[in-house]
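**User:** Here is a favour to ask of a fellow structure person. Please take any protein you like and set down a full record of it. No explanation is needed for now; the record alone will do.

**Assistant:**
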Amino acid sequence: MYEQKSKSNFVNLAYGGFTTYHVLPSGCTAPEKIQPDTARNITKALSYKPTLVIISLPNNDVANNYTNKEIVENFGKLTHILDSSKIQYIVFSTQPRDFTTLEQRRQITTLNDTLKAVYGYHFNDFLAALSDTDYFIKPEVAYGDAVHINNAGHTIIFNAISKHALLTNSCKCSVSN
């Protein structure tokens, strides 16, 4: 249930398979000829004149073998623009993925820890609630394709974000399921 205290509009620019490179500002150059998607990137998001931007890029960068250094730099480019524009933002935590190598599964956790340290109050952490001790997706929240979470996993994320002060303060709303 959504209790409206004032009018809020939510625009979803997400697209499956996207990495941090896809959502960089228009005109940015990226490796492997990945160009920012001008219909879904940060430049497009700003065109809506938002009061809050939610950044959710759970693990495709790691799947594409990008380093945590470059991933964090890309997040920095996004959040610098938002800070400069005085727009609030929430960075969602990474999500587990059933990578075959422990190295990639650990990279997800290390990246999450780094983003949490960098973004603090702006960070919404739910990785531990979705991961088992070997950094795989917990069976009870696994969709079954080794990549995605199911509705139970989405409920965990929903509950985490619905309590985040930046969301409730920016949209002047309360959210419940």
Summary: The two ends are 5 Å apart (CA to CA). The mean pLDDT is 91.
